[in-house]
Amino acid sequence: MITLVSIELYKIFRKWRTYISFITLAVLSIIIQLVMYFQGQNFLDTVTRGLQQNFVISGNFLNGYLIAYFILNMITIHIPFLITLVAGDLLAGEATGGTYRLILSRPVSRLKFILSKFIAGIIYTNLLILFLALVSLGLGILIFGTGELIVLRDIIIIFPTNDILWRFFIAYGFAALSMSVVTTLAFLFSSFVENAIGPIVATMAVIIVFLIISSIDLDFFNQIKPFMFTYYMLSWMDIFDDPINLTSIIQSGIILLGHIIIFLTITILSFERKDILS
Amino acid sequence: MENKIIEVKNLSKRFKSLWAVNNLNINVFKGDIFGFLGPNGAGKSTTIRMLLTLIYPTTGSIKIFDKDLLKHRIKILKKVGAIVEKPDLYGYLSAYKNLEILAKISRYDISNKRIMEILDIVGLKERATSKVKTFSSGMKQRLGIAQALIHDPELIILDEPTTGLDPHGMKEIRELILSLRNDFGKTIFLSSHLLFEVEAIANRMIIINKGKTVIEGSVEELLRPKELEVSFTVNDTEKARNIANEVNLQVLSDTNNMNNENSQVIKIKIQKEKIPVLNKKFVENGIDVYSITPSRSLEDYFLSLTDGGAK
User: Distance, in angstroms, between B204 CA and closest chain A CA?
Assistant: First the structure.
């Protein structure tokens, strides 16, 4: 199994499209940090204007933590589009290339084949989130240093310097779990078709529709939101709450994990009986 | 008793309302080069995909090495090498890396030396590190054969292995197939829509059309019968008929030659070795013989069996 996963990872990282996501994240992160470097103080002043009328704010608020939080807020909603580029191609790419028949006529079980591809896809997704952490949090701390983190939720919360880093680790972990759901969905779609474009577009369509519905504050939509996985994908934000609603975060995590298991099970069941016609 | 390598019984595959393969029976024995013939769309590739578990049969059973294919899939496929249709490999990887990956996927402990050896056999040693996307169709075909041979399988299933090759390449592949059987004792299941290809190398064959068996038997019996139907173009069919009758040969027909009013064609059922004897008799009796032609070429035979499906 380890050999199969390593082969799949080798194949993923020998393709140019794999690096599009990493390059995009790096470029976006660098641009945001450059802008924050020159105009970050104005942004911070705007955010804390109300607070400044009643309090004297002192300290380094424009720091690596704020930059990382800002980037995480902006990007997590868009990372799925980058992930589907690879995840949608995992199985459909083999069909398009005609290599399904090359692999599956060999003494390898379909279950192991599909699991190795899935694990490789999940590893790719997690590496992408790790990379995001490095170019946002790592680079941010390197350029802007550390300090208190000011977070604007229903109220303004200021976290002391020594109470921040662990929150980021959990937030990135949660983002990785959320993105793994996207990977699994794209992987499921990828198992049905023989062209990678289909699963990429289909996954994006599902996410866009779910996100739009999630953003409309109407009774009907509010009732169906809990049935859409995108509703739970933003639960990482709750980690930057005080006090943390741990039950809600764990519940969201379990629901996301459930989605992964369901999507993967459907993929395995359909692929096990699939006729390879490509 | 001959060892059965492949035993297919009442195999059928239905795609929606279409029966791609319908009640097919095949027996391949150890050391056979088994020709699997049929026009395009006859069901050859569907059958091969079922032999490799790429497609699941609707009904029927497949035994390979005397074991049920679906129950012992991994064990059986370890001893099988195959090319299914055109050999699509990973274009963004080198020839060497493709073989290495495929060997690893199959859990074969293949040395670097063996990979280079097999690349040498198919004439790709010099291009071992080149990306496959830079290869010509012929080179890809040869690499496809290399991946089928890399683990030294007992049974080799080749689906139209000479497609896309030039005549020289086709000859090389045919020689390689013959060598695999003669020198290494492999059993070959060779699918083709080219009758001459099967005739050149196979010892047993089956012809299928529209998913059904048309005829099965030894190549010798089916394509090289003892008695041939031979057309003699002569200047006097009346005289030729009498001579043929004298030596107890069956005259099938005689007709005027449309191209030349001075010559006529007489068709006679005759054993191959008796053709020169009869020809000598014609000449000795003053009959001018313009040509001697087997009136039903192998291609005609094939096309007639498959209802012209190959056209």
Answer: 24
Chain A: closest CA distance from residue B116 (Å): 20
pLDDT in tens, A147-177: 888 887 777 788 888 888 899 999 999 999 9
Task: Report the C-alpha gap between A215 and A232 in whole angstroms.
Answer: 13
Instruction: Confirm or reject contact between B72 and chain A (CB < 8 A).
Output: no
CB of A14 within 8 A of CB of A124? no
Classified as helix, coil or strand, A18 is helix
Query: Across residues A109-131, what is the average pLDDT?
Result: 93
- Give me the residues paired with residue B231 across strands: B267, B293
> What per-residue confidence (pLDDT) applies to B306?
55
Q: What is the ipTM of this complex?
A: 0.74
B107 touches chain A (CB under 8 A): yes
Q: What is the Cα–Cα distance from A76 to A87, expressed in whole angstroms? A: 17
Q: Are strands B204-209 and B33-37 parallel, antiparallel or unpaired?
A: parallel
C-alpha span between A40 and B269 (Å, rounded): 100
Q: Which residues of A touch B104 (CB under 8 A)?
A: 3, 7
**Chain A interface residues (partner B, CB cutoff 8 A):** 3-4, 7, 10-11, 14-15, 97-109, 273, 275-277
CB neighbours of residue A135 within 10 Å: 21
Residues in chain B: 311
**Position of tokens 């192998």?**
B298
pLDDT single digits (tens) A201-242:
888 889 888 888 887 888 888 888 888 888 888 888 888 888
Token pair belonging to A210: 């779910």
From chain B, the residues in CB contact with A14 under 8 A are 92-93
Nearest to A199 by CA among A221, A182, A217, A213: A182
Q: For residues A181 and A171, is the Cβ–Cβ distance under 8 A?
A: no
- Partner-chain contact B107 A273, CB within 8 Å: no
Cα separation, B265 vs B188, in Å, equals 42
**Which member of B54, B91, B107 has the closest CB to residue A107?**
B107
Chain A residue with the nearest C-alpha to that of B51: A105
Report whether A160 contacts A48 (CB < 8 A).
no
User: Which residue, among B289, B300, B301, B150, has the nearest Cα to B231 in the 3D structure?
Assistant: B289
Nearest chain B alpha carbon to A7: B101
Cα–Cα distance measured from residue B107 to residue A26, given in angstroms and rounded to the nearest whole number: 38
Residue in the structure block whose two tokens are 């010509």? B136
**Which tokens go with A26?**
């790096």
DSSP letter for each residue of B211-237 = TEEEEEEEHHHHHS-SEEEEEEEES-H
Angle A197-215/A79-87 helices, nearest 10 degrees?
160
What is A197-213 written as a DSSP string?
A: HHHHHHHHHHHHHHHHH
Residues of B in contact with A102 (CB under 8 A): 84, 87-89, 102, 147
- Cβ contacts (< 8 Å) between B77 and chain A: which residues? 105-107
- B94 interface with A at CB cutoff 8 Å: no
Determine the distance in angstroms separating the CA of B74 from the nearest CA of chain A, rounded to an integer: 5
Residue of B nearest to A16 (CA): B92
Q: Please, what is the angle between helix A110-133 and helix A64-75, to 10°?
A: 140
Domains, chain B, ordered by start: 4-223 (3.40.50.300), 227-301 (3.30.70.120)
